[in-house]
């Protein structure tokens, strides 16, 4: 009986030789013994299993500067400057410049609203997504910063990114620089004709019926609404058939606590009042810095006017009732927000 051929495997051999032997062993499954013969087979040692190759560590991430975003911003800024220098931009009949308002004025006012006054906006869904509407708000704060913060609140928080066109007093348009900026920002003189044209054109119009009586009232009368005039804003909304949205602003009363009024100096300068606060004029220009109070702006449910007949705008009793309804809603919301407020500054 012929001895079976045994293929020895040696651990000391190279890994390449082992691979060849493994190939012959796998290629001849019956090589240990012939068919029908009981020849003894020497024990075969297993092939050494090679250790798996360790994955190479990932290369260290390379910190790169997001040049794409920066380059786009630089290109956008240069394009904006080119359009301003060449006059290639649009303004409407009132002088409103939407590009300048979006890219410059709102950018300057936004940090003041978000970081300094930390304005909290509520009920912005009550402002229509399209079409004209009249927003009626209380007025306070010695300087009209509440109107500017109201404009930022509507622009930044409304889902449709709507712009608010404020009706301003004639004093605003008599001051140099301020006059041009107010026109560029979309504001116009507080007259019924301009307000009606804006409303019929589908714009959001803001009005503060208290006027100088509200913004210049003493600190002891804070959050007590003054007289709303003769209801001219209601008549304008009725003629245009647009809703009236009451708005309550808390926080503006304390930015310049007005503890006195230098009436003689006010008459000399042609101002409706000359404020005296705990910091102004005692600290000079530093006293003109507003206190960093915490603001809340809440928009109430709109009051519809499109259901009234055309002659309703001439009905003094209806105008009085609607004016009183708007005023009471704003005052009630002010009291509610004051009760909820835990601190003037926090």
Rg of Cα set: 39 Å
Q: Determine the number of helices (DSSP H or I, runs of at least 4 residues).
A: 10
- N-to-C SSE series? HHHEEHEHEHEHHEEHEEH
Distance between the termini: 104 Å
Mean model confidence by pLDDT:
84
For the sheet with most strands, the description reads: 7 strands, mixed
Q: pLDDT below 50 for ≥5 consecutive residues: which ranges?
A: 1-41, 60-66
Helix content: 25-40%
| Number of E-type strands | 9
Q: What percent strand?
A: 5-15%
- Give the class from helix and strand content and strand pairing: alpha/beta
Give the CA-based shape: globular
Spatially, the strands of the biggest sheet line up as: 1-9-6-2-5-3-4
Summarize the structure in words.
The chain has helices spanning 15-27, 67-86, 98-116, 145-157, 178-184, 192-200, 212-215, 232-240, 263-269, 316-340; strands spanning 120-122, 133-137, 164-168, 188-189, 204-207, 244-250, 260-261, 275-276, 296-299. The chain is globular and about 60 Å long. It is α/β, with parallel strands linked by helices. Mean pLDDT is 84; it is low at 1-41 and 60-66. 29% of the residues are buried. Helix 3 (98-116) crosses helix 4 (145-157) and helix 6 packs parallel to helix 8 (232-240). The protein is built from 10 helices and 9 strands.
Question: How would you sum up this structure in a few lines?
Answer:
The protein is of the alpha/beta class and 346 residues long. The chain contains 10 helices and 9 strands. It has helices at residues 15-27, 67-86, 98-116, 145-157, 178-184, 192-200, 212-215, 232-240, 263-269, 316-340; strands at residues 120-122, 133-137, 164-168, 188-189, 204-207, 244-250, 260-261, 275-276, 296-299.
């Amino acid at each position: 009986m012929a001895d079976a051929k045994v293929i020895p495997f040696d651990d000391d051999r190279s890994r390449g030789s082992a691979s060849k032997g493994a190939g012959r062993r796998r290629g001849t499954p019956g090589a240990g013994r012939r068919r029908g013969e009981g020849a003894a087979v020497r024990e075969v040692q297993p092939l050494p299993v090679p250790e798996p190759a360790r994955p190479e560590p990932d290369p260290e991430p390379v910190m790169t500067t997001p040049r794409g975003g920066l380059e786009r911003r630089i290109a956008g800024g240069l394009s904006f400057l080119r359009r301003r220098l060449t006059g290639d931009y649009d303004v409407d009949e009132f002088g409103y410049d939407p590009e300048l308002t979006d890219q410059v004025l709102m950018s300057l006012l936004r940090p003041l609203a978000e970081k300094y006054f930390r304005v909290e906006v509520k009920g912005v869904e009550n402002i229509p997504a399209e079409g004209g509407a009249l927003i009626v708000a209380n007025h306070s704060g010695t300087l009209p910063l509440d109107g500017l913060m109201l404009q930022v609140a509507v622009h930044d928080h409304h889902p449709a990114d709507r712009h608010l066109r404020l009706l301003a007093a004639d004093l605003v348009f008599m001051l140099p620089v301020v006059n041009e900026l107010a026109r560029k920002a979309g504001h116009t003189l507080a007259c019924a004709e301009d307000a009606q044209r804006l409303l019929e054109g589908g714009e959001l119009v803001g009005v503060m019926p208290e006027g100088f009586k509200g913004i210049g009232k003493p600190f002891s009368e804070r959050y007590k609404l003054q007289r709303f005039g003769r209801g001219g804003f209601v008549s304008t909304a009725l003629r245009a058939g647009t809703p009236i949205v009451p708005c309550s602003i808390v926080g503006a009363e304390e930015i310049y606590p007005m503890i006195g009024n230098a009436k003689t100096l006010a008459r000399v300068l042609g101002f409706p009042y000359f404020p005296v606060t705990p910091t102004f004029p005692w600290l000079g220009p530093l006293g003109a810095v507003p206190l960093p109070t915490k603001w809340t702006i809440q928009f109430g449910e709109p009051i519809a006017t499109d259901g009234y007949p055309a002659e309703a705008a001439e009905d003094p009793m209806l105008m009085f009732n609607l004016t009183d309804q708007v005023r009471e809603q704003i005052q009630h919301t002010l009291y509610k927000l004051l009760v909820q407020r835990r601190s003037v500054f926090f």
